[in-house]
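ugh ok fine here u go
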Amino acid sequence: MQVGLNKLLPLLKNYSGSNYFYRAKNQIMRKYLLIISLFFLSCNNGPKTNPSASAPTTAQDSSHAIIYDKIKCNPGEYSSVQSQTNPAISFTVYCPKNYIESQNFPIIYFFDPHADGKLPLEKYRIHADEMNIILAGCNSSKNGMSMEESETAAKAMIADCRNRLPINSEVQIVAGFSGGSKVACVTAMQNHFLSGLIACSGSVFDKNSFSDSLAIVSMAGQKDFNYHEMTAFNNAVTNNPHIYIETENTHEWPPADAMKMAFQFEILNAISKNKIPKDQQLLQQWHNEWNTTIAQHEKKNDVFITYQTLQNAVEAFKGLSDVASWQNKLSAIEKSADYSRYVTKQRNLIYQEKEMQKMLNDAFVNQNISWWEKEITDLKTGEKQTNDPLIAALNGRLLGYIGIAAYSYSNQLVNENLPDADKVLSIYKTAEPENAEAWFLSAVYHANNNQNELAMQDFQKSLTLGFKEQSRINDYPRLKNLIAP
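structure:
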């Protein structure tokens, strides 16, 4: 009965460590010629920008000259843009409220795993307004694309922005979430003109591939299944200016207050390198904001987050303002018994988490759906009812692990229409009942097996939960015929 899963499972058992599941998942996809994650992107330097010119600029590629026209962008508004470098590529631009064409602005290029370029712009526009930053989000790069497609999308967006917007060419930052974060990482490795990288819940790292001057922000939620991947990434980039920001979230774009700190770190790094004029009043304002945040964490007696925020504050403001008091607080925390207990407990929980992942992985073959329902219920209860934030975070990450594992298994099993898909889909829907993808894949499976009523029920459920990728229906003829005969 378990032929399908037995075929997939051995690939997962060969891995451990912070990237335990992610590397295993990629092995599965390579073996079965299915690309799930948007992984690699190489992006060569685009044409040099001339942001102050009043006339269109010209760039030369390998075949012909491109006449670049300015992007029409009103202050405080979004613009949907078709690339002139490659008309098949589109992106969204947000210009801050103080935008004027005669001034050069820093820019952040965003990559969303679902090609929703406007999403991060909407989430973080308030900070773009405050800090006078242009935001650009790619609508043509998403999980599941080939390396060539991803490269084309990112390269076109960056080339267009550099040639069609008034940007400060010395302050160009890439940012992304999940698969989009991996795109941002590889883009930064390939383009050393970039000044910063904000990597959220996904990373790719090749030793010595980042420019030494690249300012790196690593971000992850405490309940994110990629949590350990991001802490490992932060530990790997110590040669660069870098900070690590931890939130209370699961696997999702970071909350606005956390991203504000990331934006500030990138701007402060640019100021320290004279890429942006120094504004002493602004520096004092931000210094006070970080002090307030630290005081709030101290009041909650949250030793680790206090320690982490202090580290980030020292890294962000060193050479720009006095950080001695923050350094003294760091030293005091390091010597405290509370911090020592936290470090020991966290180390033990990480070991426990890896063992639990192995057990859950085997359970896809060895345990029935009743066992899974109880296990998932216990984890959800433990996440919500415990008073221990470390235990709550552990339970949240394990739930996320079940979800991403169930997605990877079911995606492959559904495409091969193997009988194991039914059980794995049930696990997926139990673990993540609000995930539209689980219900869409279930609809595909039922349609492939002539269970038309169940297929339509699950498809309608996926729409209710926000399924938007209508073009994917064309990949499944039986479901397509059922929906639009």
